[in-house]
Amino acid sequence: xxxxxxxxxxxxxxxxxxxxxxxxxxxxxxxxxxxxxxxxxxxxxxxxxxxxxxxxxxxxxxxxxxxxxxxxxxxxxxxxxxxxxxxxxxxxxxxxxxxxxxxxxxxxxxxxxxxxxxxxxxxxxxxxxxxxxxxxxxxxxxxxxxxxxxxxxxxxxxxxxxxxxxxxxxxxxxxxxxxxxxxxxxxxxxxxxxxxxxxxxxxxxxxxxxxxxxxxxxxxxxxxxxxxxxxxxxxxxxxxxxxxxxxxxxxxxxxxxxxxxxxxxxxxxxxxxxxxxxxxxxxxxxxxxxxxxx
Length: 294
What we know:
single chain, seven-stranded antiparallel sheet, two-stranded antiparallel ribbon
């Protein structure tokens, strides 16, 4: 393990470590206006949702490498309103173009080719191409530190939201495959929440815990930490009768024959079979397999 104090590196060096290890980060594509009504559109990956009562979003237009305030921060100081537009894969290249350091007088909507749609309750327009957009009032700006990279947390309360109808599934929930979000990583890397990158983890319950697993399972060289997490999430182990019935069913006959007639170690074979079952989220059957060792 490499241990580093922020005091031992320059601010840009530690910044690169932060953004390379904390992610993927959602992107706030923030549209703002200054006191004269000039529009700015800029993305910020220091961003997330922080509450739902009231609905609260926070993004951080930190001071740039020269220690100057970014245009978005100057704008919300003058007009405390912002539309936070969500970024999906279909718009990521245009979004990147809008992040270039144009002069404050430049309208990034026009420069990046986005369509500005008037908001209903606030002055800044929203991005028509965004699958979700939140009209917000800026409730607070919290400054932390000073100089390049210092944080300016813009705390926003959502007062109206807009969603593209195509992102909803048949149950009325937002479908991650349809919204096709992207996240920011370090350097020039992004992540796309699509395809094999998407997976599900069952909602947690008060299971028996990894500490309650039999030692041979807990210390397995075959089962991973994720496998142990699934096994520890069950609320109770199968009973002895259920384990015996599973053995007598003949499901594991070929496996027992392989251990008896070949060179394979039975516990390893059972752990391999359980690992395959766990990969398919067949946790109950995986337990029936593992308990054959006893």
